[in-house]
Design goal:
- By secondary structure, the protein is an alpha/beta fold.
- The strands form three sheets. It has an eight-stranded mixed sheet with strand order 4-6-7-8-11-14-12-13, with helices on one face. A six-stranded mixed sheet has the order 3-5-2-1-15-16.
- α1 runs antiparallel to α14.
- The longest helix is centred in the N-terminal third of the chain and has 51 residues.
- The radius of gyration is 28 Å and the shape is globular.
Length: 483
């Protein structure tokens, strides 16, 4: 028996060691890295780890066990008490056994299997965050909405999933304090490690609902557990990194926006007004569009409008019935006008070539979630004989090279592919650095994927089997030596 165990371990132990090393170092094996400035080996001063749509499930996805663990026992007890003959009691007992093995036992098994699946999924998502964080050393981290799997859950279940989020998935991560997000604070890139552990959480439709479902209570509980839904912060580049030839110190603005209630009809117009007031405050506090030493990174959940076929998700709007309030029930993108408001408001772009900075607007990039497949596109305002007739369009970033060479307003929008297992456990890597030669911020993006969740499960199951068999072999050797 010991000889057989040794032969098995000779196969399993090397396989277990190799697969475990791979799992815990996969960014190295996949050659993942934050993009860096050409001509230099030093890392970019701003490195954002962007994660999309973890969607933690919970008790709403579990088979209900509220009545009893084995409800057919209660039914049998009631029937036996009421039966009048031995044959009737035996018939009832036979029916009980049929129902027990056909319904109760599979139901209990399915419940515990699902609980184990949820536990494993938490640690799979946490493994992605911790491994990429440890291997690639980001300066900032964001989760682009749909932190949880449903906006309809109770407050108690919301808190339970919030606990799992902070204690399993993003263990050692920190909520961004309200004191930090209360006003416009200015930090300095590379001067503090505080932001490495802070998780910039974006509100998603599964967290607070679409405009037709969004209520004050849902927003308040999200902000209590995960942080404010609308805020901005600015980071300046240290003087030695930016040079002294620029009138203004180079600056990155991070704008966190709740885009779920930009479109109508909205259940709570007051919350919608607050969001638009926040957008107006972002616009009014911006530097002039001519100042290209500042760039804006917009973090929000809903992607901007684009025509069908550009990304996997095409335009979609659905509304509640009138008896349910008639509000906005579901959407794949922001409406054209809402997206236009962001492009022409926050980024100051214009179809009028006589506008400040020729209508080219502010520099920056937009990061969104929601479309689990991910997408990378370029929004631009094509030329037209009538400037008033120019309409925003979108095309794949990979094929936008010709547009980038044109003097037209445009900006890149990256929809980060979901980190869920069925989408390959993806992580987005955004780098930003200041190009001193042209006096402008530059952005580059890459991705790093672990693979489906079955890889995580298989490696850990293999490790458990190897440890178990090695323990048996060691115990067998111990008994053999004692004899």
């Amino acid at each position: 028996m010991l000889a057989v165990l040794r032969r098995i371990l000779l196969l399993l132990v090397p396989l277990s060691v190799i697969s475990t090393v791979y799992l815990y170092s996969y960014p190295v094996f996949h050659q993942c890295a934050f993009p860096s400035q050409p001509g230099t080996d030093s890392p970019a001063p701003f490195r954002l780890l962007a994660l999309g749509d973890p969607q933690l499930e919970g008790d709403s996805s579990l088979p209900s066990l509220q009545d009893a663990l084995f409800p057919n026992f209660d039914i049998l007890r009631q029937n036996i008490a009421a039966c009048h003959s031995l044959s009737q009691c035996l018939r009832l007992a036979r029916h009980f056994l049929d129902d027990l093995f056909a319904f109760d036992i599979p139901r209990v098994f399915q419940s515990y299997r699902k609980q184990l699946d949820l536990l494993g999924n938490d640690y799979y998502l946490g493994h992605i965050y911790r491994t990429v964080f440890r291997s690639l050393d980001p300066t900032h981290v964001t989760v682009l909405g749909d932190l949880l799997g449903s906006q309809w859950i109770s407050d108690e279940e919301f808190d339970r999933r919030g606990w799992r989020y902070w204690n399993r998935v993003f263990k050692d991560g920190q909520r961004v304090d309200d004191e930090v997000t209360a006003g416009i604070q200015i930090g300095s890139l590379g001067q503090s490690n505080d932001w490495k552990r802070r998780i910039i959480n974006i509100a998603g439709n599964h967290d607070i609902g679409y405009a037709g479902d969004l209520t004050t209570e849902r927003v308040q509980r999200f902000e209590r557990v995960f942080g404010r839904a609308n805020w901005e912060i600015r980071f300046t580049l240290p003087q030695e990194d930016s040079g002294t030839s620029f009138q203004n110190q180079p600056e990155l603005r991070i704008v966190v926006l709740n885009s779920l209630n930009l479109d109508t009809p909205a259940t709570d117009p007051d919350i919608q007004i607050e969001t638009y007031q926040f957008i107006n405050s972002v616009i009014s506090a911006s530097r002039p569009v001519e100042d290209q030493t500042v760039a804006t990174i917009l973090l929000t959940h809903l992607p901007l409008h684009k025509e069908a076929g550009v990304c996997v998700d095409g335009p979609l709007f659905e509304f509640h019935n009138e008896e349910d309030g008639g509000g906005l029930k579901e959407q794949n993108h922001l409406s054209y006008n809402a997206g236009k408001g962001i492009l022409e408001g926050i980024y100051g772009m214009s179809g009028n070539p006589n506008a400040p900075h020729q209508g080219l607007g502010r520099n920056g990039v937009i990061l969104t979630g929601h479309d689990h497949e991910g997408c990378d596109i370029y929004h631009h305002l094509p030329e037209a004989s009538d400037p008033e007739a120019r309409i925003w369009a979108a095309e794949k970033w990979a094929s936008s090279g010709q547009r980038l060479n044109q003097t037209i307003p445009g900006i890149r929008e990256i929809t980060v592919r979901s980190m869920m297992g069925q989408f390959g456990g993806n992580a987005g890597l955004l780098s930003a650095w200041f190009d001193k030669e042209i006096g402008r911020w530059h952005f580059e993006y890459s991705t790093c994927s672990l693979g489906v969740q079955h890889i995580w499960w298989a490696v850990h199951i293999l490790d458990i089997i190897s440890i178990g068999l090695a323990s048996l072999a060691a115990l067998g050797n111990f008994h053999r030596i004692r004899k």
